[in-house]
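Reopening this one. Same input as before:
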Amino acid sequence: MIRLAVRVAPADAELVLAELVELAPSGVEESELPDGTIEYAVYGADGELPSLPDLRAAAGGSLVEILTSEVADDWDEQWKAFHKPISIEYGSSILRVRPPWEERVPASGQVDLVIDPGQAFGTGAHATTRLCLELVLELEPSGGCVDLGSGSGVLAIAAAKLGWAPVVAVDHERESVEATAANALANAAELEVARFDLRRDGPAPTARLVVANLLLPILIDVAEAGFDGPAPGLLIASGLLIEQADRVAEAFASSAGLVEVDRRCHGEWAALLLSAPS
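Same output, byte for byte:
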């Protein structure tokens, strides 16, 4: 079995991942290296892996390095070991997000979410997703929620389980829509899941709370295109490097009148909580 790793600059990592998923639909492993570089890896036998020219084209100017190595035949079990449960405390309760092969750990006041990472979407361990979860957990559920760019659905499902309703999850990738719907079913979470391209389909869906764990260019596009109704009362924006946060805050302040009320950082990543003026 061969492991093919593509290392890319973090600023464009999510865009590169979207291209790699097209080349390797069986799944992409993601990790952050000590120097901040993002590594995406795919596994397969000779002849099953994407070609090097295709990989270089997909990574574009973000490419740092491509590596190949032989791995043991139990790589699928190693991939499972890569996805570990995460736990976030809020008040006297705990939100635990785990992949389906990890057993539930009964605990008082615990909200247990089972998220199959599927095709590289992850289970919530990435810093930007965790920052979004932390902010959602500190909000009092009041009205509906829209998750823009749902991936595996972890943010939308968490919102639904915490009392936000109705909850809508949208993504432009068919695989993301399918993963979100399947994970919602596994968690008995009521969601409306739909395909929506934030860059081509016009103003974004809106609700009392909008969660947008995206990339800088897409967040700017959302701010400029506006919403298909009143601006959200609360908006969580993430997927950002720390140095990009001011630009996003300014964009939503200018277009939607939203004011920054909280900013969280972890490593090089940031998440913003924006609010409509009271």
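So the earlier flakiness isn't reproducible anymore. For the record, DSSP finds eight helices and 14 strands in the chain.
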